[in-house]
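Researcher: Here's a chain I'd like modeled. Treat it as a single chain, no partners, no ligands.
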Amino acid sequence: MAQSKKERHESRIVAVKALFLYLSRQGNVSLEDSLSSVIEMEEKAKDDFAESLMQSVLENQGKIKVIVRAFAPEFTFEKIAPINRVILMLGIAELKYFDTPPIVVINEYIEIAKEFGEERSASFVNGVLDSFRKNIGKEREDRE
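Model: Modeled as a single isolated chain. Structure tokens:
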């Protein structure tokens, strides 16, 4: 069954929290355990969309890091605040590997950055994701 906009938003937040937990533990806790911990703390049901987002990031982590470096060249990947890295990784994965409309993805992750990031996180996330979105459009035009 398809999720509502609100449920998708909540799934993205679960994914941000769980991926942040997973990456902060440097692989000492499994992806599944990270997701289960967040779901338990949030008292939510199993979240397939959040799990799909996180799995997509992990399967494509190298490619996603290259994309972040390309669209945020003034920062080394490791110097980006950890929460911003997680938000960008999930946003890029959703833009690249899911069928969600790009404007929805960008707006969602801007809102998440406002909620969980620092003062300038939202504008940083917006800039990187929007630049990537524009590049995806050019790639699609070049292939046609």
